[in-house]
Here is the input.
Amino acid sequence: MDAQKFEVKAYPEMWESLGMDVPRFEKARVMLGEAYTKTYLSQAKRPAKMAYFDAMISEIHGGRVKELLAAKAEGRPVVGTFCVYIPEEIVIAAGGICVGLCGGSQGSVPDAEKILPRNICPMVKSAFGFKVGRICPYFQAVDFVYGETTCDAKKKTWEILDRLVPTYVMEIPQMKKARDKALWIEEVKDFKAKVEEVAGKTISEAELAAAIKVMNDKRRALQRLTALRGASPAPISGKDALLIEQIAFYDEPVRFAAKVNELCDELEVRVKKGEGVIDAGAPRVMISGTPMALPNWKVHNLVETAGAVIVNEESCIGTRYFKDLIDENLPGMDAQLEVLTDRYMKIDCSCFTPNDERIVQIAKEYQSSKAQGIIHYSLQFCHTYNIEEIKVRELCERENIPYLSIESDYSPEDVGQLQTRIEAFLEQIRG
Ligand code: BJ8
Here is the structure.
């Protein structure tokens, strides 16, 4: 896309009708367009098929929101989400839409800090601030918000968020014993009943089977993209791959999977020709840790500006979202819900204890991505990831993997310090 012409499109009338703070949101729109132009459109050798994802950003505050509103007008449920624990298949089976509401922007944090404590996770503050400040059209458009009892910051924020938007909370177990799975399956059934109530219909076996296939196809497309990033030279930048993983949380799943597959077709040609976005000798880095919600591109930008390439995100906005599929061929609602529950119980979020399968998964992804070093990324005040970092560090020490741990927030204040640390880390890999 032509950097000169790129803009995030404005829809002031629609925003007004959604009860948004339009003058303030207009400023955020312009800032997002500028940041995107600088961070994304300045990259060399981008795949041509990234044009679709550029257009998704250009229409982020309009086109997709209109689709959500059209769905609502037809009585289809629109659910706002914050976590990969939401059984999306159930919402899709009811004809509904899931849209990620995680916040990755510093701009909404001061709104949240007027109400919430300052010393909690920036992702929770950013998301909450979007609702308080009325500066997110998706938040304004949802029927209800899905919350979960993963970390303390989230589960206590839902009680306050519920005053502003209906917030339905699912209990996520903290362990993975048989009784924890039994709890989770009951929670999944309750959630299904909630979605059916909003949709005004009962989900059939055939609808759930079709939805499982839709989500599997989307996850397969993302798995294909991840596998292609294992090639050397890397056929796509980490920034672009992260962007796609972020868009996965708000785009229409069938269209999204088709567009990711079109991009993968192009990348396969690149790989066959030995073409990449950067020289084969550039350091290859894997990121592991807390999710990077749109528009959090801070670490990727620093690493790739320093001449390296990111080849994997072991994160919920990354492989944790799509590494596991669901058996598509089981007849009967009970059997379907059982395999669906099994898939979600495989998610290796640090909110579980113990969670050693995540360490095994990190080692596996390090091998398959052909990375040469790991950066552990944790958002400030995220206790579970910050503490689990100890085990990731130990893995890297054991396996002699170059390693850097970063704890950061969304403010630009630590950029200079991070740049110095990242450059030293890349020198270690080069050396
Ligand atoms: S399954 S990682 S999406 S909870 S970073 S808000 S944990 S204090 S995001 Fe997550 Fe679901 Fe787990 Fe994934 Fe709390 Fe930590 Fe903030 Fe976090």
Summary: The mean pLDDT is 97.
